[in-house]
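Help: why these numbers?

___
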Amino acid sequence: MGESPPPGRGFFYTGDSSLYRFTAPVLVQECGFPREPEQFLRRFSQAGFFLDDFSSTRGDKPAARPGDHAVREAVKRLAATISADGPVVVVGVLFSLRPLVREIVEASSRPHTPWECLHFPNPKSKEGQRLYQAGLRNIILEFGCDRGASP
């Protein structure tokens, strides 16, 4: 679960965002995903992974305004997605989203779904990139590479 598309350009699902650049190598290494972006994204979907943003507005900061109507609607929408799709684990891709991710999981019909929030892999922060990739690697090792993998 992400915050919003990047403020400038790029998008995870077009394979040209910071999030994509720091996620793909982990899934290639740990799960054997293909390196080529189109094939990677197809395998990402086939394995049961998906990214859903709180907001479709580029550069939006929903964690900074948790009481805003649009954020409250996103909480409802994402809780319904968890209820319907039954993910193995929910991963927030920005540490400041923790309170909202917790609320979303608890508001779903699956409140015991494991969840975690990772540091965003900011391209200007080597430490943030390292923390993100290490956290993602740990989640993959714990929960597996496919939706049907045993936790």
Observations:
- The chain has one domain: 12-143.
- The mean pLDDT is 93.
